[in-house]
């Protein structure tokens, strides 16, 4: 018999959202109807954590906020109806579910025909994350079929758990021959690459979400058994190991909140405090933020997802223990990110090398990494800092990321995803239905399901209205006082917001109305970006039709409305949304001579389908060109577009640049890459020097290019006319990685038979940080009827790096050319550019 956890009066943070109301409501219902789900567990949450020590500001759970708007609701519904089932299906197709089945079978002593470890030792987390997302949807949208499916998955997970609680399919499938990253012993390579603790961190997040949503303890009990193994294994006088990939800390904080088990919280704190350079393998690396003690860190470095999960964990432990040293560190790190390392889209993690933060002001656009998971982590972190400090500057950053660089991670149909979210493209980027490393889709599923939980928060007798979206929030304040706020608005397309306030009875309390930074001439709370011109349009605020002054400067980003509220009182907020030009700090070299466009919270991009030439990197937008906006219900599920006139640059065969006036359209950045591959640019050139003129057509650029085994790489990079700076130039190249040592080919098919006698090859080679090298050898063939025949060369097939390798041959008239490339053994191969004359 389960002891009823006293969760009626407590709140539990889930994905930055407190779920008190749902927990109370659903726990009883499900427990009473699912006796099988509440078999006596080995450990049982007997009491809730003491909530007097937690974040001073409490969120209003997403279960208490019902959106019926045209922006979020369709995305949340697509997530529920399409993305979550699709992600589960991908977990099955890719063998992630099978990993648990095979691990269980091995633990029963059965002989496996397939003893291969998972592709990556963190593949287990993809299932955990989607279960978390599914649980959130179940808390607001009962679905017996989904509920049963999740139950079945949980049974498979439970069967793969070892007797002492250890859960890691990578080892359990074949402990003698696990994935090489796992090491031969448990925890041996945790600080490097095993991800044993990372997997468990995601399990904890999923387990708490599932328990809160359904009241069933199945997944929670599995999680608690692993947590007990951790508290027995790690800590003072035991193993002093911290997670190589953070999230365990956040997960343990959630388990603490749900169970009141002090040792879980102490372990989370231990895993933060023990982190740092200790001479051990894997320690002392900026890559996983172990180069310094966490409380001594002041700059965001290394892997961006690991970093934001750690900063979020530090905030949690600070809130739960009252230790101010973590707060001081994360505040300093936040200043560094927001002042020097944040993209205008709210994305973070500038470089693909180590999926990491770049240096200060290092914010390249086309090669921007901006992993979707890092955007999710950035919002977790910023929301936690808001809960600590009650300052809307954190919501400003959170909102920017949310509306731009986070939701750009999923397509409008909910079935394909971005891992990196660049700010410029020549068509090399496209969303994919799934990834070998599939962290991002799962993160999207869990985050989108919980978006309504970021709208309101409360502390004492104050309600914070943080986000604007049509719908109703039922806010339960301290002391049980209930207030309903109904928002009527077309936000983010229109800044008029009408809020109808309904307290249970007339009484005095405060409503803090957030005035977004972008409406106060401050795009970000730092000098990293500024609006190029001041907007004359003023924010206005009225209560029951009576104007309330909105000071130009607000200490914490809110206008406080303290009064005796009575049912039916109306707040009218008007946030003007003119089209704004944003310029970057002069130290951001990549954005020099460029502007980004913003309207309300939305950042814009010019994309190829909206340009008559299908080019946008050639556009110059004069600083004084008038810009207007209009709503297009027919486009990209309904978006406000920006229109104006730009100038398009084009180069003729002699290299002379011509200028053509061109109608200009920009779409919300998040909606790009839903209409096929092509050019996109967020930071538009304001002078000719910053634009890329359309190159003159050549035999190569007008060819159709195809390649063997293209994978997710676009062979179009080979003939896009983009001149490389070096063989390792990351801007636009094609490669066959991860294929190594093989023979591959690339073909050009010409429009019509063409006489050719020369080719130039610029090889891709990323020595120093990748596995691609110039080829061992290559040759050129031409099409003769149905056959490919070698050309007769008059010069050797060169493989020099950092230059074009020219080969001349006896002229042939042909409909196509083919390159045959033999890679070096153990290495892959690739091409920057292939010219033909
Ligand atoms: Zn990811």
Radius of gyration (CA) equals 28 Å
Write out the distinct hetero groups bound to the structure: zinc ion
Number of helices: 15
Residue windows where pLDDT falls under 50 for at least 5 positions: 1-46
Main sheet overview: 11 strands, antiparallel
Brief summary of the model shown:
With 837 residues, this protein is α+β, with helices and mostly antiparallel strands.
Topology of this structure?
Elements: E1 13-14, E2 17-18, H1 20-33, E3 58-59, E4 65-67, H2 72-93, H3 96-107, H4 124-140, H5 144-159, H6 169-172, H7 196-214, H8 218-233, H9 248-259, H10 262-273, H11 304-321, H12 324-341, H13 372-389, H14 393-406, E5 424-426, H15 439-449, E6 456-459, E7 462-465, E8 471-476, E9 482-489, E10 496-503, E11 507-514, E12 529-531, E13 540-543, E14 546-548, E15 558-565, E16 569-574, E17 580-584, E18 594-599, E19 602-607, E20 619-620, E21 627-632, E22 639-651, E23 657-668, E24 679-681, E25 684-685, E26 704-707, E27 734-735, E28 743-764, E29 777-784, E30 787-790, E31 805-822, E32 830-836
Parallel strand pairs: 7-11
Antiparallel strand pairs: 1-2, 3-6, 4-8, 5-24, 6-7, 8-9, 9-10, 10-16, 11-15, 12-17, 13-14, 13-16, 17-18, 18-19, 18-25, 19-23, 19-24, 20-22, 21-22, 22-23, 26-28, 27-32, 28-31, 28-32, 29-30, 29-31
Helix pairs in contact: 1-7, 2-4, 2-15, 3-5, 4-5, 4-7, 4-15, 7-8, 7-9, 9-10, 9-11, 10-11, 11-12, 11-13, 13-14
Protein architecture, described:
There is one protein chain. This protein is of the alpha+beta class. Strands 5, 12, 17, 18, 19, 20, 21, 22, 23, 24 and 25 form an 11-stranded antiparallel sheet that branches. Helix 7 packs parallel to helix 9, helix 9 runs antiparallel to helix 10 and helix 9 runs parallel beside helix 11. Zinc ion (ZN) binds next to helix 13 and helix 15.
């Amino acid at each position: 018999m389960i002891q009823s956890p006293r969760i009626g009066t407590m709140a539990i943070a889930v994905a930055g959202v407190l779920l008190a109301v749902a927990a109370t409501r659903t726990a009883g219902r499900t427990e009473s109807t699912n006796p099988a789900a509440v078999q006596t567990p080995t450990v049982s949450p007997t009491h809730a954590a003491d909530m007097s020590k937690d974040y001073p500001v409490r969120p209003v759970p997403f279960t208490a906020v019902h959106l019926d708007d045209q922006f979020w609701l369709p995305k949340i519904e697509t997530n529920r109806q399409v993305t979550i089932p699709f992600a589960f299906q991908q977990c099955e197709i890719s063998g992630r579910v099978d990993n648990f089945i095979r691990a269980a079978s091995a633990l029963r002593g059965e002989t496996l025909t397939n003893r291969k470890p998972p592709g990556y030792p963190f593949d287990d987390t993809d299932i955990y994350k989607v279960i978390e997302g599914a649980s959130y949807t179940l808390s607001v949208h009962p679905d017996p079929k989904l509920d049963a499916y999740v139950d079945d998955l949980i049974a498979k997970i439970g069967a793969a758990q070892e007797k002492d609680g250890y859960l890691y399919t990578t080892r359990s499938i074949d402990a003698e021959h696990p994935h090489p990253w796992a090491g031969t012993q448990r925890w041996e390579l945790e600080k490097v690459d095993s991800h044993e603790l990372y997997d468990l961190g995601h399990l904890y997040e999923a387990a708490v979400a599932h328990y809160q949503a359904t009241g069933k303890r199945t997944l929670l009990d599995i999680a608690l058994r692993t947590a007990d193994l951790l508290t027995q294994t790690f800590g003072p006088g035991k193993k002093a190991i911290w997670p190589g990939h953070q999230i365990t800390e956040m997960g343990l904080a959630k388990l603490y909140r749900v169970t009141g088990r002090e040792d879980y919280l102490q372990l989370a704190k231990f895993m933060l405090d023990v982190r740092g350079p200790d001479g051990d393998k894997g320690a002392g690396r900026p890559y996983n933020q172990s180069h310094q003690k966490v409380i001594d860190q002041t700059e965001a470095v290394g892997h961006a997802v690991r970093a934001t999960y750690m900063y979020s964990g530090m905030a949690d432990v600070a809130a739960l223990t009252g230790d101010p040293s973590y707060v001081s560190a994360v505040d300093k790190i936040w200043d560094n990110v927001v002042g020097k390392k944040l993209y205008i889209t709210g994305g973070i993690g500038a470089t693909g090398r180590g999926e990491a933060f770049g240096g200060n002001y290092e914010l390249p656009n086309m090669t921007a990494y901006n992993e979707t998971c890092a955007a999710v982590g950035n919002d977790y972190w910023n929301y936690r800092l808001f809960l600590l400090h009650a300052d809307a500057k954190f919501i400003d950053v959170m909102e920017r990321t949310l509306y731009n660089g986070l939701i750009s991670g999923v397509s409008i149909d909910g079935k394909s995803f971005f891992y990196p979210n660049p700010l410029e493209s020549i068509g090399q980027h496209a969303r994919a239905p799934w990834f070998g490393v599939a962290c991002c889709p799962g993160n999207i599923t869990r985050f989108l399901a919980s978006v309504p939980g970021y709208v309101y928060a409360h502390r004492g007798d104050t309600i914070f209205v943080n986000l604007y979206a049509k719908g109703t929030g039922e806010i339960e304040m301290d002391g049980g006082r209930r207030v309903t706020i109904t928002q009527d608005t077309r936000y983010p397309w229109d800044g008029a917001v009408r809020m109808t306030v309904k307290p249970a009875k007339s009484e005095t309390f405060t409503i803090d109305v957030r005035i977004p930074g972008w409406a106060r001439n401050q795009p970000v709370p730092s000098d990293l970006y500024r609006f190029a011109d001041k907007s004359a349009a003023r924010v206005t605020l009225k209560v029951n039709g009576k104007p309330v002054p909105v000071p130009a400067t607000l200490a914490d980003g809110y206008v406080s409305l303290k009064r005796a509220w009575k049912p039916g009182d109306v707040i009218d907020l008007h946030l003007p949304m003119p089209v704004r030009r944003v310029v970057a700090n002069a130290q951001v070299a990549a954005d020099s001579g460029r502007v980004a466009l913003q309207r309300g919270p939305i950042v814009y991009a010019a994309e190829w389908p909206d340009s008559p030439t299908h080019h946008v990197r050639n556009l110059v937008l004069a600083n004084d060109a008038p810009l207007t906006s209009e709503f297009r219900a027919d486009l990209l599920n309904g978006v406000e577009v920006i229109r104006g006139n730009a100038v398009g640059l084009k180069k003729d065969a002699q290299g002379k640049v011509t200028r053509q006036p061109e109608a200009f359209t920009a779409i919300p950045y998040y909606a790009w890459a839903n209409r096929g591959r092509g050019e996109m640019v967020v930071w538009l050139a304001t002078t000719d020097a910053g634009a890329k003129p359309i190159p003159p057509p050549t035999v190569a650029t007008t060819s159709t290019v195809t390649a063997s085994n293209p994978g997710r790489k676009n062979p179009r990079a080979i003939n896009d006319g983009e001149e490389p700076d070096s063989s390792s130039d990351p801007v636009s190249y094609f490669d066959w990685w991860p294929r190594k040592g093989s023979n591959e080919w690339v073909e050009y098919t010409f429009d019509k038979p063409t006489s050719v006698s020369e080719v130039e090859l610029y090889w891709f080679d990323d020595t120093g940080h990748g596995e691609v090298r110039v080829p061992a050898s290559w040759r050129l063939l031409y099409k003769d009827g149905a056959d490919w025949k070698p050309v007769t060369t008059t010069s050797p097939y060169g493989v020099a790096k950092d230059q074009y390798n020219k080969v001349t041959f006896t002229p042939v008239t042909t409909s196509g050319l083919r390159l045959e490339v033999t890679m070096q053994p153990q290495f892959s191969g690739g091409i920057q550019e292939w010219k033909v004359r």
